[in-house]
Amino acid sequence: MPERGDAIRQQIIEAANRLFYQRGYNQTSFRDIADAVSIPRGNFYYYFKTKDDILYAVIDHRIESIRATLAAWDATSTDPQHKLRLFLAMLRNSDSELAQYGCPMGSLNIELGKAQPVLKAKARQMFDLFRDWLTVQLTALEVSQPQAMALHLLGRAQGIAVMAQTYNDTALLHTEIDQLVNMLNAIPAKSALP
Amino acid sequence: MPERGDAIRQQIIEAANRLFYQRGYNQTSFRDIADAVSIPRGNFYYYFKTKDDILYAVIDHRIESIRATLAAWDATSTDPQHKLRLFLAMLRNSDSELAQYGCPMGSLNIELGKAQPVLKAKARQMFDLFRDWLTVQLTALEVSQPQAMALHLLGRAQGIAVMAQTYNDTALLHTEIDQLVNMLNAIPAKSALP
DNA sequence: GTCTATAAGAAGATAGAC
DNA sequence: GTCTATCTTCTTATAGAC
User: Fold this and answer.
1) CB A159 within 8 A of CB B166
2) For a Cys staple, B150 with which of A16, A46, B2, B135, CB 3.0–4.6 Å?
3) A132 to chain B, closest Cα gap in Å
4) pTM of the full predicted structure?
């Protein structure tokens, strides 16, 4: 059952989640988060002992969010090709955020990968979720190396996000996503096989 | 003619260049750079007034380095396809740095793009150099949309760098670069045209 | 559970002696 | 040109009153 204070804890996580994305983890201070939630700075430490603790909670929050998204896609259809299009549609629908702040998973991994290996290992778990889900869909489509193809797709998405943010250009993002959709449609549907 | 102190100024730029890449711009302090060059912190301000000034100098240094690299590639061959392979060979040769710290251009743009628009505009100039050089080569190869293709290639390289760093995996990088080499070789050579 | 006050240290930056 | 001392502000974090 929910304890008292859980609501504020949740507010902190959501504010930190947004700020870490928009400013970066190291560029976000306790003060920023406390101000966003309108609680005094000192009270902060009742909920989280260290800054790393908040990051872990934020990543866990994101992981749950990703799991929910993937489950929703799985519930929408049994056609793996259609599910993969949902993945690309998500990127397309996030165009303005991606052009402003880049990919939340990618930018966090790059930042932490520079000099915070322990935190980065945690952040990588978000990538693993997508990689494994994509691998399942590509296995169902019987492509030759499903996991390599899953990593390829993730990489393409990351590259598109970096370029869209670098040039602040959603049109570039749309053009590149279209190419991925075409590539996907070129995979022979399993039902067409003997 | 070189003034006194230029040698130390150059040492500062080179140390900052390395530290910005390995730790990130915002995660590198004056103290870090001063210690790396073994000069007292106070003396630092004789050479650079603000931290932004150092970043500008570092980016200018990188831009000169990129220009020199592109000029060297241009001098090596007149065959655009061969020159494009030199671009991909550079990525392959940087595999361990890319897997550790990501792409120096991409990671800097992502970091600054979050909340430092003025600095990011400067950092984007590095991308412009590669974009324009790639566009020239692809125009010579008479591909249909040379600039879009140049941005596509840059994006592919960025995506590969993000994945290589996220999974700390140079093998993944090699696999993906091989695909780019194959894609490049599939472009019909201009000399084969009527 | 909530809040105030404040510590301890690191950050960017300055003044001024040598 | 070089260096010491110092300032202010911000950061993470704690103690303890309410």
Assistant:
1) no
2) B135
3) 14
4) 0.96
